Amino acid sequence: MKKNRWIIIFCFIFFISCEKEEKAIDVIGCTDPLASNYNQFANISNNSNCNYESYSTTIPLTSNYQNQIFFNIKNNIFVAENLKSEWDLAFETGDEGFHITINSSTFSQISSVSNINFEDVNSANNLNWQWDNPSGNIDSSAIGDYRVNPERVWIIDRGLTTNGSSRGFKKFLIENVNEEYYSIRYANLDNSEDTTVNIYKNNNYHFTQFSFNTNTQIQIEPDMYSWDLLFSQYTHLYENNTEVPAYLVTGVLINHLSNVQVAVDSSLNYNDITLNDANTYTNFSNKKNIIGYNWKYFDFVTQTYTVKTYITYVIKNNSNEYYKMRFIDFYNEVGEKGFPKIEIQKL
Fold first, then answer.
1. Residue 264, C-beta contacts closer than 8 angstroms, at least 6 positions apart
2. Per-residue pLDDT at 16 exceeds 90
3. What is the count of structural domains for the chain?
4. Are residues 36 and 143 in the same domain?
5. Residues 72 and 95 occupy one common structural domain
6. pTM of the full structure
């Protein structure tokens, strides 16, 4: 009896071990939870056929364009926001970084003098003013490679307040730059408020900022991979125009140092542009001002702005995802200018 029972158990185990496992059914579909046709049961991704809802967002620069707003396209959020007058200089933060830029949003400009003592620089007259290249070419900044002439004294016109009055002048020396910090000495042109400060580097950011108003380092720019677009005023440079070489404009700058890229399409209708179209564009650019300010025009008769809704900006973020964006308004609900409204859809 016991022998028969063990024979039965053995046979049962043998047949179970020989039984074929159930094969999972392959389900092809969209596996992106952000898509409107997301398939939670899909085990084979076909995300080229994902569908995404279009959304619109209003950017509150305000009527005097006082704000700078860093925007993340994927999450549709303002990553950071600041008054454009909160800072004066920006310092590259990589270990080997040495570049310094000026605050383009306040229409600031800079010049320098050599072979003169710091204390003897007392005037901003008869200077050759320079501006940073709005394309973002780091080697085309107004200050450039100051290390070749470390005794050079820089004079900065800090630009304009939101009501158009002067923010004044400062002079400064760049005394040192190393892997950890910059050291600068600055003062008013009359040598008052003579101060030396260190500006420390942080590899989580492309640049860190400094304010002459508060004598402090201030982190205006967010984490280098957390944002895609900066809505702000900035200084545009006109080529071969000696009368008006620079002009303050209101527009959009991209996070070009994190490899955000943009292609501009003014031929296809916004609603018709697909991911397949994005994959065929050959005009992607990572120029900082590729979106720029030319998505609107000003009517001098009616004194109003009109946005060019026929221009689509196809944006490739640093995760290699594609989005299409266009401007659909420049005014808020009560008719105030300075509130650009954008429409965005993931492709």
1. 283, 290, 291, 311, 312, 313, 314
2. no
3. 3
4. no
5. no
6. 0.88
